[in-house]
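Hi support team,

I've been running sequence recovery on a batch of backbones for a student project. Most finish fine, but this one hangs at about 90% for roughly twenty minutes before it completes. I'm not sure whether the input is malformed or the queue is just slow. I've pasted the structure tokens below so you can try to reproduce it. Let me know if you need the job ID as well.

Thanks,
M.K.
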């Protein structure tokens, strides 16, 4: 029965593991035919920073999964210590306006896709997850994070401002008060601190442990009507989704306009230099 549920690529038709697999340069997708769970792996070394190409491939992969009957999808990273370093700062530093527009639109679209998937989603956060990395995790339905890493919306530390839908993503998960304290100070939480405030749902010893725990999360829905589950998700997330859909152009204009400010470019310059000096 399970084997009929998934489309397999020709190249793996004789694979005894009966696993769907599709890999682009920056995103790998595999579906375990036995469990029905898809694993979407970001693979852009050294830090999985989210540039236009990675976001475009990620959005495409998440959309493709919508047409397959999967039990759920796990978003994770191929890197040993980093889930995602967030937006690629080089996309924002001295940008060409057309590239900056395409980049921001791809981020908006990826978030909209991930926030509204018909299938359940888990972020298996197997490394640091600042800013845009945190945003992707927040768009999933459940977050499991490996111990001793950091997560949060630290935009103010870069002299930039988290847009309203980043803030809403946070406020839909942790309290308004905690969001205010965290966002204004650009706080990055350690794994155990993130658990305490509810920013993540579970901790894990390592990536394998996180993946095993994700499987258990999906099992919660075994006895739940999938349509009822999806309609409930839409009810809970619909308002936030609609707000970005309605204000997409305004949000894009603000982003591009913001990047053109000399003070913002100066802030990014200082931050980039500090990152490089770290070594
Ligand atoms: C009024 C309202 C108006 C609203 C307008 C909108 C405003 C704009 C909103 C934009 C929102 C932005 C969201 C973001 O995601 S910004 C990115 C934030 N990310 C970070 O702060 C993370 C920075 N990186 C790190 O802290 C560390 O690199 C990390 C802990 C992730 C890993 O540490 P590690 O020691 O393992 O690795 P290195 O630091 O040595 O890094 C290796 C190389 O990678 C480069 N790097 C790191 N992060 C980034 C990045 N995000 N983008 C680009 N490049 C990155 C780093 O410089 C090293 O490069 P080199 O090898 O060349 O030195």
């Amino acid at each position: 029965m399970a084997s009929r549920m998934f489309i397999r690529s020709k190249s793996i038709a004789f694979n005894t593991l009966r696993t769907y697999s599709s890999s682009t340069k920056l995103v790998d997708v595999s579906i375990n035919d036995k469990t029905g769970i898809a694993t979407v792996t970001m693979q852009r070394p050294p830090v999985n920073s989210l540039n236009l190409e990675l976001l475009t491939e990620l959005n495409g992969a998440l959309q493709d999964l919508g047409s397959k009957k999967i039990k759920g999808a796990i978003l994770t990273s191929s890197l040993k210590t980093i889930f995602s370093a967030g937006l690629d700062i080089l996309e924002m530093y001295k940008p060409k306006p057309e590239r900056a527009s395409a980049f921001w639109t791809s981020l908006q679209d990826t978030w909209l896709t991930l926030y509204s998937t018909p299938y359940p989603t888990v972020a298996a956060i197997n490394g640091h997850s600042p800013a845009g990395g945190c945003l992707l995790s927040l768009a999933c339905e459940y977050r499991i994070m490996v111990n001793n890493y950091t997560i949060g919306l630290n935009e103010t530390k870069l002299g930039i401002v988290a847009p309203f839908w980043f803030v809403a993503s946070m406020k839909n998960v942790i309290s308004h008060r905690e969001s205010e304290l965290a966002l204004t100070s650009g706080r990055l939480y350690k794994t155990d601190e993130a658990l305490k405030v509810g920013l993540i749902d579970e901790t894990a010893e390592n990536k394998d442990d996180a993946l095993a725990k994700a499987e258990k999360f999906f099992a919660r829905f075994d006895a739940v009507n999938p349509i009822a589950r999806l309609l409930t998700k839409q009810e809970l997330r619909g308002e936030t989704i609609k707000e970005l859909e309605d204000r997409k152009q305004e949000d894009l204009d603000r982003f591009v306009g913001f990047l053109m400010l000399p003070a913002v470019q100066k802030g990014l310059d200082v931050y980039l230099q500090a990152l490089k000096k770290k070594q």
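--
Follow-up from support: It reproduced on our side and the slowdown came from queue contention, not your input. The chain has ten helices and ten strands. No action needed from you.
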